[in-house]
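Give me structure tokens for this 401-residue protein.
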Amino acid sequence: MTVADLPENAFRAMAFIFGALWGSFFNVAIYRWPLGMSVVSPPSHCPACGAPVPAFRNLPIVAYLMQRGKAACCGAPLSARYLVVEVLGAVLCLAVFERFVLTTPNADLATASAAGVVIFFFTGALLVATFIDLEHTMIPDEVSLPGAALGLATIALRDMDAAEAAIGAGAGFLLIQLPFVWGYEHLFGRRGMGEGDSKLLMMIGAFIGWKGVVFSLLGGCVQGLLIVAGAMVLRRDVTAKDEYAFDPGPHADRSVPGDACLDEGGTATKLLKEAVEPKTEATEPVEAGLTLKRFLLTVFLFGGAGFLSLQHIQDPQLAELGAIIATTLGLSILALYALAGRRARAEEALAEEQAEGEAQDEAPALSPPRVAFGPFLALGALEWLFFGDQITTALTATIIP
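Here you go.
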């Protein structure tokens, strides 16, 4: 049986419903994984009062609309995120099957559908990572590591080159881990990005290869800088202010806000312990800012990498691509130095004002906001997944003669 044997509209309807159902599970993962909770036990319950939610009230999209965004048990308002994620899950599944299944009418129905389901799970992982990162400024390993394994295990099903996927996974991890995690920590005494971003880009590489990794990183940087610039002007954070989730959780009636992270037995989860236990390890302060020494070292290292790429890589396209990557990473490091120095100066000025009793409620103008980079990586990955051919054609025509 081929794809063409099933009516297209029936295919689209099944894809939409399938995506909405998984969108409901994505909401569970978004809420529970950052709190160290299982997505299986306990069963679905009200985020406000903890009452069990019957199956008929768990219908994706429909239940939220019929209840007008409120819990049926206690009337507590529900986050709009529930509806948004379910709708996005349905739309992404429909888009995946439209792009990768219905365009191959002569393919075997079971094989094409299985490939479509795998690609949809990849987009779902990006969706989960995006909302968790926005709410908690973290990306759990439960999202990225199984996703990377799934991407590498289904290479044949997706008709992808094994070397490209393996190189993509490795390059995706190292492109962030080396300069922005280990390197930044060595320079500033703290990490500029979390390892969650490295692992997320590793998963992206396992699914869409090293070219997709490069576009996700560079495209994510460009789009992220635009958002950050707007947030700086408006003095807004890009992430949620709450360290935990928008929803208060079933333990919201307790006096300690962190108790939302308690497990069923009342024991603090790993996340809560790390949040409230004092850090005893002392770190020496590191000078922040763009000094002449750091500027010259960055230009030497990444400029040399770009020069060596142009001189020793035989393929002209790969040579220019390597130079572009080196230049982008070098400029990113210099920008991080500059932002770190600006933040340090703003914090010093604010501390002086507080000491003099003249501190104001507003944050200093143009102070760097809190930023979750995972959503921008996910956005770049989705853009490459659906429009990679068009992007390659456009870049080839404009950047590579």
